[in-house]
Write a structure and sequence with these properties.
CATH architecture of one domain in chain A: 2-Layer Sandwich
Order of helices and strands of chain B: EHHEEHEHEHEH
Largest sheet of chain B: 6 strands, mixed
Number of helices of chain A: 19
Radius of gyration of chain A: 76 Å
Strand content of chain A: 15-25%
Shape of chain B: globular
CATH class of one domain in chain A: Alpha Beta
Structural class of chain A: alpha/beta
CATH topology of one domain in chain A: Beta-Lactamase
CATH architecture of chain B: 3-Layer(aba) Sandwich
CATH topology of chain B: Rossmann fold
Structural class of chain B: alpha/beta
Oligomer: heterodimer
Helix content of chain B: 25-40%
Largest sheet of chain A: 5 strands, antiparallel
Number of helices of chain B: 6
CATH superfamily of chain B: P-loop containing nucleotide triphosphate hydrolases
Strand order of the largest sheet of chain A: 2-1-5-4-3
Distance between the termini of chain A: 196 Å
Largest interface: A-B, 26 and 27 residues
Number of strands of chain A: 20
Number of strands of chain B: 6
């Protein structure tokens, strides 16, 4: 039908009837497009009439928003609505706050309750810690820290006691309770079966929730086991369980929540796709490790710093005190040194030895005869300006000192010994006659002496006689150290003399020339007598009969002389001279003289005379018979014995 | 080698021997006291499915109750499969098992399961026969006659469930 009409229109289309044609077109248009036109008019009405338009959009808008589920579309929508919605909210809250209070009441009330409960818990924790630590030495350090930093003490205690360590973190799939990831702090033993732990944690929280709460919003969020606390936090897909040793601060929970939020944001794709294979989730580990905090280290650092602040003044005080103590000790050592030096002298009496207004004061008496304490001070380690001294001179009556003083006053010779028996002065030893004479005059003037006794005093000659055991035959002369001995004495005494004199050191020189030796004198007499002896012969070499007694005397004379020579340490030589008269020839006479001498020698040898004998001959020049010339004569020579 | 973790639940009437069966299969990690307090006991076991895949079974051994309604349903959440345990000597345990199975399908969908008719060592005393077993609607690989006492068929049952849990690739 429609095709036929179209053909008709084409056939009747002539320029002559253009108007008619126009009208026909209008009719045709109306016939053909009346339905569409009606709809167009309706649409126009909708668009031009806000009320109708709004009604349509109101129907479409919720659908449109719901369908904007692609990420890009959603973002665009969020962005577009953000400002308007915000403004609306602000306006609305401003206008009708009661409405929002009523609406939010069921949400806010549990939040406030929870917040208050946690604040209370924190206060209780800090209170407990404060009580626990209240009596420890930490308290003093904390008081100092609080004073230094201006923080309340309670806060300082809190900061110092909140030591904790997050040892392990479990990321658990909420739906299945399967372990997504598990990280642990260094040095923490791996759990035997973290998968089972993960499942058990899930079961426990399900159990507690089912058992104790009807409200789906109530979740188990803390598990405490001895020293350990487990914080549980939940996201849409995963639950975070952190095992903490020590006392965790509640701020830690916020930290965990942030980490869990970050994990959800970054890895939402992985979490939603999880079907039991947790290897792809290993990328979460780095995020999860952020949970493994420890506060102990920070506190140690802080305490180290504060420790230094305490330590420096403490050390300074200690050093000052130490120096002061050491210095005092040294001063005491010097003081002791001076006092010890003073105590060595009997004539020094210390009457005061103490500190007056911080200054060392030493007072006392001293005997000028003994020592001057101020001179002693110069020789001690104590400095002159370190001590205030006051020394008064006095005469000590201590016997030793009194004796010394008397000796000084009396100008006693070195060999005089002074003894004081109470007030009685006793003098012994050796002194000059003149000095001894003077004593009687001086004595009354002496301090502390009432009587003097000096009968035991000897003069020098008396003392020398005694010391040298001088024989009565020897006289002693002594003056000003010069000794002279006169007289005669045996050789033995004479020989021992030098040693004896040397012992008497007051003798400076001596003279022994006038001292004769007894043995020498005797020998001289004997040898003179011997040299006057002659033995006479008859004729030739025949002795006169009368000569035998004479010979015996001769032998004893020689032996006696020799004995004295031995004592004098001398060798005696006996010269035996044969004499003849002048009647015969010289030759004959010489031989005869020697023969006579030999005869005597032989005799003497028979008598065992122990002397060296020398033969000599002397001939008479007078040629006549003279019987007095027929003889043998003697002479002696003495020689010092050679020492072997 | 890929390892997949899978949560499975062991369910069944009171006294059918669930815990003993799991004890047979795994080395016990947890004391039984958890079972009495929390009502669930955890064990894990790594099972090789093939050369490229292992399944780590996280076994939730849930305390038996007469009625499924008393079992904490939250414990079942997220389970990938389950083990239904019956006591061959008690017919009532079949009713409980069917009740459990039906409820799980309602709750979690048609997830894999194996049924274990326990106490095969007391076969002579069995009240459950083949006709009863047919009601479980279990194919050959889903039905095992086990003994927690001797260990018979226990491992096979767990391995079979693991194979069901492995993705078909």
């Amino acid at each position: 039908m429609t095709e036929k009409n179209n053909e008709d229109v084409k056939q009747n289309n002539t320029p002559l009837n253009a108007r008619l044609e126009q009208k026909s077109y209008q009719v045709l248009k109306t016939l053909l497009l009346s339905e569409e036109d009606k709809r167009l008019q309706q649409l126009e009405f909708y668009f031009k009439s806000p009320k109708a338009h709004a009604k349509k959009i109101a129907l479409a808008l919720p659908k449109a928003i719901r369908q904007a589920d692609g990420v890009l579309l959603r973002d665009a929508l969020d962005e577009a609505l953000h400002d308007t919605v915000q403004a609306c909210l602000v306006e609305s809250v401003h206008r009708e706050p009661e409405l929002y209070v009523d609406a939010l009441y069921p949400v806010i009330l549990p939040m406030i309750k929870k917040s208050i409960a946690e604040a209370f818990k924190e206060v209780m924790q800090s209170l407990n810690s404060a009580i626990e630590q209240g009596l420890s030495i930490n308290r003093f350090a904390w008081h100092y820290q609080a004073w230094r930093s201006g923080m309340p003490y309670r806060e300082v205690v809190l900061r110092n006691t909140l030591t904790y360590r997050v040892e392990q973190a479990f990321l658990i799939h909420r739906e299945t309770g399967l372990l997504l990831r598990h990280v642990s702090n260094e040095g923490i033993d791996e759990l035997r079966d973290s998968d089972a732990v993960s499942a058990m944690l899930t079961a426990i929280q399900d159990f507690t929730q089912d058992s104790f709460s009807a409200n789906q919003q109530d979740k188990l969020d803390t598990v405490e086991i001895g020293d350990y606390t487990v914080f549980l936090d939940r996201g849409a897909y995963a639950m975070l369980a952190c095992v903490i040793q020590g006392i965790p601060p509640y701020s830690l929970r916020d930290h965990f929540e942030t980490i869990l939020g970050d994990i959800h944001q970054k890895y939402i794709g992985l979490l939603t796709k999880f079907e039991g294979d947790n290897e792809p989730l290993a990328v979460i580990d780095s995020e999860l490790e952020k949970c493994l905090l420890s506060e102990r280290k920070q506190i140690e650092d802080k305490s180290a710093v504060s420790g230094k602040y305490i330590l420096i003044p403490l050390l300074l005080i200690f050093a000052i005190f130490g120096y002061w103590a050491y210095d005092s000790w040294l001063f005491e050592q010097r003081r002791e040194n001076y006092l010890n030096l003073l105590l060595q002298y009997q004539g020094i009496v210390i009457t005061e030895n103490n500190y007056q207004q911080g200054e060392l004061v030493i007072k006392g008496l001293y005997d000028p005869l003994i020592a001057n304490p101020n001179e002693i001070l110069k020789n001690s380690t104590l400095q002159v300006d370190e001590v205030k001294t006051d020394w008064q001179a006095y005469h000590s009556l201590v016997p030793a000192i009194a004796e010394q003083r008397l000796k000084q006053v009396l100008q006693a010779p070195p060999l005089v010994k002074i003894t004081l028996k109470e007030t009685r002065l006793i003098l012994t030893g050796v002194a000059d006659k003149a000095w001894i004479k003077n004593l009687a005059i001086i004595t009354p003037v002496l301090t502390g002496v009432t009587a003097i006794e000096y009968h035991q005093l000897q003069t020098y000659p008396q003392f020398i006689n005694q010391q040298l055991e001088t024989p009565e035959t020897v006289a002693v002369f002594f003056q000003k150290g010069y000794l002279q001995l006169q007289g005669i004495a045996p050789i033995a005494w004479r020989n021992a003399l030098a040693k004896k004199i040397a012992k008497l050191n007051f003798i400076t020189d001596y003279q022994l020339d006038k001292l004769e030796i007894t043995e020498e004198k005797q020998r001289q007499i004997l040898s003179e007598k011997l040299e006057k002896q002659f033995i006479y012969f008859i004729k030739g070499s025949e002795l006169l009969e009368t000569q035998s007694k004479k010979l015996l005397n001769l032998v004893s004379l020689i032996k006696e002389t020799n004995h004295l020579s031995e004592q004098l340490e001398q060798t005696m030589y006996l010269i035996i001279t044969g004499h003849t008269d002048g009647l015969n020839t010289t030759k004959y006479n010489t031989a005869l003289a020697l023969k006579r001498a030999e005869k005597i020698i032989n005799y003497l040898r028979q008598q065992a005379v122990p002397v060296e004998m020398i033969i000599a001959s002397q001939l008479s020049t007078i040629r006549r018979s003279n019987k007095l010339q027929r003889k043998v004569g003697f002479a002696v020579i003495f020689n010092k014995k050679e020492k072997k | 080698m890929k390892i997949l973790q899978k949560k499975i639940c062991v369910l069944g009437d009171f006294g059918v021997g669930k815990t003993s069966l799991v004890g047979r299969f795994v080395k016990n990690e947890f004391s039984d006291k958890y079972l009495t307090t929390v009502g669930v006991k955890m064990d894990t076991k790594l099972v090789s499915v093939n050369d490229a895949l292992k399944v780590k079974l996280i076994i939730w051994d849930i305390a038996g109750e007469n009625s499924f309604k008393k079992i904490s349903q939250t414990y079942l959440r997220g389970a990938a499969g389950f083990i239904l345990v019956l006591d061959g000597t008690r017919l009532t345990t079949l009713e409980a098992a069917l009740d459990i199975k039906q409820n799980i399908i309602q709750l979690l969908g048609d997830i894999p399961f194996v049924a274990l008719i326990n106490k095969v060592d007391l076969k002579a005393q069995w009240e459950i026969d083949d006709a009863h077993m047919a009601r479980l609607n279990a194919v050959e690989k889903q039905l095992f006659f086990t003994s927690a006492k001797t260990g018979e068929q226990v491992e096979e049952a767990f391995i079979s469930l693991s194979q069901f849990l492995a993705p078909n690739t």
